[in-house]
Amino acid sequence: MPTAEFLHEARARGFVFQCTDDEGLESALKSGVVSGYIGFDCTADSLHVGSMVSLMLLRLMQRHGHRPMPLIGGGTTKIGDPSFREEARQLLTDEQIGINKAGIRRNIEKLMTFGDGPTDAIMPDNAEWLEELSYIRLLREVGVHFSVNRMLGFDSVKSRLEREQGLTFLEFNYSILQSYDFRELNRRYGVTLQMGGSDQWGNIVSGIDLCRRTDGKTVFGLTTPLIATASGAKMGKTAKGAVWLSEDRVPVFDYWQYWRNTEDADVGRFLKLFTDLPLPEIARLEALGGAEINEAKKILATEATAILHGRAKAEAAAETARAQFEGGGGGGDMPVVTISAAELVDGGVAAFRLLALAGLVASNAEGRRLIRGGGARIEDEAVKDEALVLDEAALRQGVRISQGRKHHRLVRIG
Asked: Which CATH architecture best describes the domain 251-327?
């Protein structure tokens, strides 16, 4: 039975930054099933952890008896969202966009229930209607309702112009197309709620205005806060790059470790945003202090990983970490890197080279610097000799090599 509890819990968990009409949306949520959407452009073949706030909000919506609609931006990807970007996105080919669509669909399908029921998620692609648009018709039917003066006032546009980075006419159209999406989704599927990050506020309000002006429809908008860690780092970014949702980009163990390494000050907040745990249980975990906070971090890591990769893989990663750091074992779920015997030089592989082959550093030179800085470890022992060579026998058996105490690989010859 649909209720307004979705909005109440979304606020309690920290998902809500702004809402265009609190009372109106609450009334709509109480009156029946509300369909709400968030758009995901196809700029890579996987989403990353930064998208999990939006995905978890859609998941929460479904848990409360409403219909989530992740929209694939097959059409808008060809334009590029200028929001708070320093330069235009590189234009992708149709083939690249197709590959990216497939990867993103696989990410999203893990997080919601899809089907034909009234609260089952569906995943439309805005290329279905945007690629069929007539430019003249778009100008006459939609463009007439947009004020350039107002569009220039959007924070996402102003920030680009103030930095004198320039804004192409192509990108300037993005807001119009996103507004068109909202109207089209309302017409096709009865969607009455658009959600997105706080940087999308101007685009969302424009879509609401278009639905009202052209169709006389009352629709709503809600934005989530842009999430940063307590230390100010952007969510989902590490020294090694983005934390991707696809297992072939980021192994399950590394994904688990990302959450396990959450800063103490973020544990409670991240439990609310990135797990399905009940709020009273989160309050109990959030109150833990001292060394006990590490237990809360492990629960966060396991629950967040289970949502994306399944309970079995999440618990295997947790057990690998326990064996590695508490029991002294190797752990069966640690990412394994298989190298060719052709990498052997005089019967072995230099440690700095092994770091690069394992993907823990980007180059041999970076591997040397890591060793000189004391950040490389083999079988949990610091590597002190830059000239250290691992012989073939050890590599046949498998060598555990680490970047610091957080990133680990088991490297063996295949």
From this structure: Orthogonal Bundle (1.10)
